Amino acid sequence: MAVIPALDLHRVPGHVAIVIDDGSHAAGEAALADVVEGGLEIGLRWLTVDAMPAHLWGLPLGEVELLLDLYERLLVDRRDELHGWGVRLRCIGRRDAHLPRRLVRVIEETETLTAANHGMTLTLAVDYDGRAEVADAVAAMTSAVRAGTLLPGAIDEDEVVAHLYAPDLPDPDLLVHTGGDWRTASFLVWQSAYSEFVFSDTRWPDFRRADLFDAVAEFQRRERRFGAIDPT
Are the beta carbons of 126 and 51 closer than 8 angstroms? Predict the structure, then answer.
């Protein structure tokens, strides 16, 4: 599918984050592959998807196991293809609490395989919660203060970012929520403070590059002020 004519390829957001609508996390492998390929087509450098939010641990055990198997198969089946596209793939979230060791091993193998790629960084948030990420950063800084390696007066925004799961992850310029849901779902809480939000009615299993292009086109119609007052 061609890039939509209204898209200005010189003003593509550097980082797009996608929140998957409820009930769609167990589907959408085709959606992910097509969105990644579409992102590469328009020169997108960073793409982050909330693959498995931490709140999904509250689902029945059978559904949780289905999700875990899904993402293990996705990584195993797709990583060579993504590697061939020049995609650097990594995961953020807590790895030492709920995730099976087998899945953690597959994640680490995939990250190692694609670590040197420069085409796009695809970040999958697995067992991830944005508030937990901030809490973990605060806990890490508190431990550093107690150990004497960090002065309390040295704690600023840059120090907080340095203790997030992926300190090099840029703030998303555009955050897309699929399925008609109008909320952030505790996704990238710190990083999305000044993101532009687009809410798509398309559910994640049906989401394709055309929907990504529509969201980017909407982003390009806006004037970003990062909280500043419009002088006019």
Answer: yes
